[in-house]
Structures are given as structure tokens and as C-alpha cells.
Design a protein that fits this description.
With about 250 residues, this protein is α/β, with parallel strands linked by helices. The chain is built from nine helices and ten strands. The chain folds into two domains: about 45 residues, no CATH class; about 200 residues, Rossmann fold, CATH 3.40.50.2020. α5 packs across α7.
């Protein structure tokens, strides 16, 4: 297997999935232990650490305090129990997600997916029998992009943790403008009524893990969680690869 790997490296010298830099320090000697990322890009991955909101996962700018609920979650409890992410949405992680999401490079999910799966294995250790559901795309956007990046990431988590994956029951039924172009209040209205669950029995009494690539205001996650709770889900959690800061 090592010889085959070396042969492949000779024919196709390994490059960083994000910046395209060669990963060789010298022929057949990789510069990094990562099979996907160069040292410079790995150094730009900024972990999401305390202090942050234990409900929505929003990080706080000040390090003087510990974890505590943010003002938004205190004013109105989300429909999900908690939302987690391993990284801040900036630097090389932002670039990598953009390459996956907008660059039509689905193979980037094979590099980013294991990072999310590794985090999930640690963060979800106390939760059992979760049903994984990716945030769905509208059929029109799915046709435009060619794949659902959230499903690709969710598949990595599902395989690594041996959890059930359901990508058919929750559907997006209304085509909406991209959330990135909208203000916070507009985002909530934009996704209102945009999703439906076609199989209530699939979630009734179950704990659901919603997977997405990025969480910003959390409006999409909360709307999906609202639908799932109304249809009988016991509890809903959110998992994304990255989270925006304040």
C-alpha cells in the first residue's frame, strides 16, 4: 500500500486542497502530516474556543468571561438545544468552504469532512442514537451547484460515528435568495416556511443532528429545528464546520 501511495504521489504530486501548494518537502517526503493541507493553511485554521454561547455557539469578543448565553438566546430560546462548530469562519477555513460551496469542487469535502467528523466524535460522545440530517438545498440550487455540500459533510460524520443518515425526509420547498446577501432580520423572514418534513415518523421521538457547512445568524438552523420539533422530534442539535464571530 505504501508503494502504491508513493507511485500515485509521483504521478500526481500532492497539493494543498485549499491553496494548491505542493505538499512535498522533497520528492516522496511530505512537508506535513496532513494528506490534504499545507502547514500554512493548517496554521490559519482558528478553533472556536471559549468564551461562547453554550446554546447557539456564538463566540464572544472578550476573554474575560466564561461561557454564558448570549442576548439573543436569552430573549428567545432557539428551537434547537445547542449548536456546535470546531472552527471560526475565517482565513483558510473560509477559503476552503468557499472552494467547496461556490467553486464546484466537491472533492474539498473529502478534506474538510474528516475534520468535522473528528470534532463530532469528541463533542457528541455523550449523545446516543442520533439521526443525522443535512440542511437541504432547494432542487433548483442543487441543480445549479451539482451537490449539497452539507450532505457531503454529513456523510463523513455518519460514517465515522456509525449514525443513521436521512437526507430525504427534510426538504426545502421554497427557493430563496442566499442568506449571505441579507441582514439578520431579513434572514429570519427569508427562511420562514422554506422547509417541510415529508415523513413525520422518521423523526418522531428521535434526537436529530442537523449538519451544515457554516452557521452565521443561525436562522436556517433554527427554522429547520422548528419544523422538526413541530413534527415530533425529541430534541435537535446543530453541527457545522465553521461559525461566524460577532
Amino acid at each position: 500500500m505504501t508503494f502504491f501511495r508513493q507511485l500515485v504521489d509521483i504521478i500526481y504530486p500532492p497539493r494543498c486542497t485549499i491553496c494548491g501548494r505542493f505538499l512535498w518537502k522533497r520528492p516522496l517526503v511530505r512537508e506535513t502530516c496532513s494528506p490534504f493541507f499545507c502547514p500554512d493553511c493548517v496554521a490559519e485554521f482558528r478553533p472556536l474556543v471559549s468564551p461562547l454561547c453554550p446554546i447557539c455557539g456564538q463566540p464572544f469578543p472578550s476573554e474575560a468571561t466564561g461561557d454564558h448565553p448570549c442576548e439573543d438566546c436569552l430573549r428567545k430560546q432557539p428551537f434547537y438545544e445547542a449548536a456546535w462548530a470546531p472552527y471560526r469562519y475565517e482565513g483558510a477555513m473560509l477559503t476552503g468552504i468557499h472552494r467547496l460551496k461556490y467553486g464546484s469542487r466537491s472533492f474539498v469535502a473529502d478534506a474538510l469532512g474528516p475534520l468535522l467528523a473528528q470534532f463530532a466524535g469528541i463533542r457528541l460522545s455523550g449523545l446516543n442514537h442520533l439521526l443525522i440530517m443535512p440542511i437541504p438545498l432547494h432542487p433548483k440550487r442543487l441543480q445549479e451547484r451539482g451537490f449539497n455540500q452539507s450532505l457531503l459533510l454529513a456523510a463523513h460524520v455518519s460514517r465515522a460515528l456509525h449514525l443513521d443518515l436521512d437526507f430525504l425526509s427534510l426538504r426545502r420547498i421554497r427557493y430563496t435568495p442566499p442568506q449571505t446577501s441579507l441582514a439578520k432580520r431579513e434572514r429570519k423572514q427569508n427562511v420562514r416556511g422554506a422547509f417541510e418534513l415529508i415523513d413525520r415518523d422518521a423523526v418522531k421521538g428521535r434526537s436529530i443532528l442537523l449538519v451544515d457547512d457554516v452557521v452565521t445568524t443561525g436562522s436556517t438552523l433554527n427554522e429547520c429545528a422548528r419544523i422538526l420539533r413541530q413534527c415530533g422530534a425529541k430534541e435537535v442539535f446543530g453541527l457545522s464546520l465553521a461559525r461566524t464571530g460577532r
